[in-house]
Amino acid sequence: MKALTVIVVVACAGANSARAQDWTTAGYDAQRSSWVRAQGKISAASVQQPGFQLLWKLALAEQSSGARALTPPVLLDLLIGYRGFRALAFVGAPSDRVVAIDTDLGRMEWERRFASDAPPAGAAPTCARAMTPSLARPTNATLPALIGGASRAAQPARGAVGDPGEGAVTLAQLAARRREAARPAPGAPQPAAPRPAPRPFPVVYVLSSDGMLRTLNAMNGADAEAPVRFLPPYADARGLIVVDDVAYVATTRGCGKAPDGIWALDLGGKQVTTWRASGGLAGPLGPAIAPDGTLYAATGDGKVSTLEPRTLKPKRTYRSGGPGFVSSSVLFDHRGKLLVAASSRDGRIRLLDGGRTAFIRTPVFAHALADELTTWADTNDTRWLVAPARSLVPREPPAPYDAIVAWKVVRQDSVTILQPGWVSSEMPAPLAAAVVNDVIFAVSRGAPPSSPAVLYALDGATGKELWNSGTTIPTGVRAGLSAGGSQVYLATGDGTVYAFGFPMEH
Amino acid sequence: MIPNGHSSIAGLAAVLCALAAPPGSAQQAIFDGTTLTGWDGDPAFWRVEEGAIVGETRADKPLKANTFIIWRGGTTRDFALRLEYRMSTSNPAGNSGVQFRSALLPDAGRWVMKGYQADIDAADAYTGQIYEERGRGFLARPGQAVRVAADGQLQPLGWVAQPDVVKSFMKKRDWNELQVVARGNVIVELVNGHVTSLLVDDDERRDKDGLLGLQLHAGPPMKVEFRNIRLTGADSFPTTPAHADWLTDGGNPQRTAWQRDETVLTTSRAKDIRLLWKITLDNAPREMHSLLPALVVGRVDTREGPTQVVVVTGVSDNLYAIDAGRGVLLWKKRFDHSSLGDTTPRSGLMCPGGITATPVIAATTVPGRYTIYAVSWDGTLHQVNVADGADAAPPAKFMPPNGKPYALNLWKNVIYTHTAQGCGGHPNMVYSYDLATGRVGSWGPAGGGMWGRTGPAISSKGIMYTGTGDGPWDPERGIYGNGIIGVQQNPTTKALELADYFAPSNAEWLFKRDLDMQVTPAIFAYKTRELMVSAGKECRVYLMDTESIGGDDHRTPLYRTPLLCNEGVNFASAGIWGALSSWVDANGTRWVLAPFWGPKHSRFTAPVEHGDVENGAIAAFKLEERDGGLQLAPAWISRDMSRAEPPVVANGIVFAYGSGESTTQATPELGLRANQSEVRIKNSTHAVLHALDGQTGEELWSSGAQITSWNHWAGLSVANGRVYLGTFDGTLYCFGISP
User: Please, is B446 exposed, middle or buried when counting C-beta atoms within 10 Å of its C-beta (0-12, 13-18, 19+)?
Assistant: First the structure.
């Protein structure tokens, strides 16, 4: 039996909005930062000590499927379910299959399959492989704070003795509380706008290849609502995210005859709205969403467009003046201002400054950058941008090599600039990184692509390698990482999910 | 086959009458002709006159509601009753009757009964019929043979005599002989030797046992007399107070739940256990809470003389004292909680409000006088005289109101308890009340709630131990969740101070999966050492030495068992909940008993098992020395029980019960909304009490379907041949053996 306070907090939080430390969508949060801020075991100090290791792996591949790889897990760190407390990872698997994994034990909790009635896609052959569903859990658009599960935290033990005949000191504390409560609260906040009644269980959203958005009970995978038409069948959907009861997703490559753009589905009214991106959308993470709900979309023609939440009405478009973007945009707070960054085809990172007046840019530092950026801030409030880079420029050492490159966002003479931070040691074909506290996790999918993948842990301040997975992962990787609950997850091309972390005695 | 003609039904009745006397039973005169010894009625209306019990109302002394004089010498199950009655009234509305297999309704009055009645009236309109007072009403009218089906439907079977013929059997204003014969589900009534009604009662709700009494009906003035009352087959009550006590939850400060002074109950006599009485109290349940475990004082000096008294606490701030021999309410006390204002439950199932800690009783310096220490809803400590319910000392401030303290423990003039669930918005704390100085110590482990069902256990050194429930374990930061703490009062400052602590090596896992260490420990001596056992929802038992419960690193017990259950790692409906028990048999073997919920773990086995376990069971261990250390060796696993609750032990018998409570806290459809009282109450069934052989776990006796309600956070008590269990509907059951 959990203390009541915990039950109440978790019940409320678990029903309709994710706990802040959960990885609920591609890129972790609404801003697509890929930065997990949580008190926990993972730190630059702990990872280089013995103990961080492979915890389990679970093969989900089906021999008959030639479909594309697993999705990075979407996480639910605390589910109070009918079978007990669970930490779950939800993975989209080939053949329109969703699997929930108990991340403590590495065993399957439940699975669902969705049979499509739609005919095969008639577009490009590559689209026919789009058989892996997109997953998301409800996401809060506010900037995640440093959290550690406040409801489960505790103050140190304490004791006291009351005066004779006066009972426990807690009686005196109670009296003080009552006096405090009797005072009128200054500037009481206005009542919040009415919201839909919360569900008694957490949900996971699944966009299956037939274009239907499915709301599943996270406890058992059962339908929590009837499926709703969201996209045309076999569209290439990316970055599914649900904020304030609106689902958003990006479509690319014209698959399923769906135009490239952003789609919104109001889960209350079931209306679908579309915004078309003339230059196509960049990156696999879909739109980034600001705390006020505004959507930011980086496009293939070098623009960042902002859209109103729910209606997708264009608000403003910012032209970078450079080549098209290749990554999704990431948003972050820097000294009270919301900045927008994305990587462009010319091997630079471009940053829209807080005044929204101009893009600043890095020098060309690679021949190519991966399609995802990561951002985090250290304890000195220094903001970092981390990019997987191919064939660094200039080529040092003499042969070109791939690496993770980190840049600092700094103010210099009242101007925001991007300052070189560090470059990791060689890491062939790096994929997008994830940050847990001050540790950068990056995965090299190997060179050539069929080579075994290696997971690296780097010191966020220096780029120094703290740990690597060695030969633990025998196959290559196609998708990125996700992390939470002091564990890091990686899905390999052969349909296996790996979990790394510190062992816990069961 | 049920006959359907006058003659055949009458013949059946006659046969039944011929077989009336249960084998081996003797006829007993239950009225001595001169006094009301053994009878309990309102002296304003009942007296003895000329060899008869007389009930009379007069115009100047009217009766507002029916009253009864109750025979306190035993109960009626299968019996034959023969008596003479005379209705001496000219008013045709005069009415009386004879109650049998009946129960008391103390909330309606001290002398109010409900149940079967052989009806008598001045007009002989009802005389000869079988009626049910305050129940199903008319069952078999004069001359009728009736069957009551399982669903309560009345099915006429025919006539034993026509009504006008029945009327002709009666003698007006003269003595008539009334007979009632009851055997199982068949009841026959005869007047002056003639069968007047026959009842075949297959109703699932029928009472199979209960008290006998005589009725005086409200209404116009009337007089009724009864004499020559003879009973065959009565189950007698003992009349001599016994001397074993059960003064605190878990039986003793060490919480072993072992009644060492039991002499009446034996394994060979366990088969004779039966329901001695039950009493329905007027306590209103709150959320799922109703009656707390009973306490027993073997001999209390009351105004009526030495009496064995059972003290029961009701969650709605009620204390009840019951005569253990007769099952009659002696007094009731309701604590004043008017200062709390609105007392509507709002905090849910886990914070019901009300009184949640089983009181503790202590002998005073005056022989035969005992004091109850109870913490009421408003957090006040009360001291109450067991004999009459009067305050033995002024109420005193103790702890904040609306909290959830658990069973009080008393050690060397200091009362200890602990709280859980943060009820009332208060932190979870250990509390002590120093009776000498009135100073209250408090200490919080910064863990989760401390919710061992029988409260803290206290060692020979006066250290109070409790599990710390669901919370992180980080002693370097002063956080002691999911472990066990030992807390001791500083004799000088009266402050509570941490004396020792322990956490399982997998405490982090326990926290993550909500597998609280929350079981009240049991402490016992073993050779030159003092040992302690405890457990949690994870479903394994830890053995510790109170000298240092976790060793140098506070993580190393003497021994831990494998998992007994909870293979599914669930936080609800699985694991060990509540308390453990420990006892020593005649061979000197030390036993440890663990109740658990849910299916047995597939890899846990014992030399003796009693079938598949799906819902819960008792696991018994022997303390053995092996390989230079101590171990808990599995000995037996009991039969399946619906949520096995903490057992108590008496004279080699292990009493255990399945509560019948729905313990589901989450469902796929409702999530945690399933953990609401209205949902769980609806899905609860009924409790079953089991008597098990302590050596083998074999079931010796079971209450079957006799207990009709379930309970939550109740518990067993045992003393002087009787076992007590309260249920959600406010009924206290007393099962046992007459000495």
Answer: buried
Domain extent, residue B494, equals 258-335+353-736
Contacts of B599 in chain A (CB under 8 A): none
In terms of CA atoms, which chain B residue is nearest residue A154?
B446
pLDDT of residue A5 exceeding 70, the answer is no
**pLDDT tens for residues B416-437?**
999 999 998 889 999 999 999 9
Average pLDDT over residues A201-211: 94
Euclidean distance between the first and the last CA atom of chain A, given in angstroms as a whole number: 19
What phi-psi label fits residue B233: left (phi over 0), alpha (psi between -120 and 50 degrees) or beta?
Answer: left
Contacts of B664 in chain A (CB under 8 A): 82
Q: Which residues in chain B have Cβ-Cβ distances shorter than 8 Å to A106? A: none
Task: Round the average pLDDT of chain B to a whole number and report it.
Answer: 92
Give tens-digit pLDDT for B438-474.
999 999 998 889 999 999 999 999 999 999 998 999 9
User: Does B273 lie in the same domain as B228?
Assistant: no
On the question of pLDDT at A189 being above 60, the answer is no
Residues B102 and B68 in one domain: yes
CATH top-level class of A4-146+200-501: mainly beta
CATH code at position B73 = 2.60.120.560
- A248: closest CA of chain B, how far (Å): 27
Assess if residue B518 is contained within a domain.
yes
- Same domain, yes or no: B538 and B602: yes
Of B446, B512, B514, the CB nearest to A156: B446
Does B229 share its domain with B263? no
In the predicted model, is pLDDT for residue A20 greater than 90?
no
Give backbone dihedrals phi and psi of B245, rounded to 5 degrees, phi first. -120, 160
C-alpha count within 13 angstroms, C-beta hemisphere, residue A411: 9
Residues B157 and B229 in one domain: yes
Instruction: Measure CB to CB from residue B397 to each of A7, A154, A167 and give the nearest one.
Output: A167
Select the residue of B399, B449, B481 nearest A167 (Cβ to Cβ): B399
Please determine, for residue A270, whether its predicted confidence score (pLDDT) is greater than 80: yes
Tally of CB atoms within 10 A around A259: 16
Interface residue of B514, B538, B566, B712 to substitute, partner A, most A CBs within 10 Å: B514
Q: In chain A, what residues touch B511 (CB-CB under 8 Å)?
A: 152
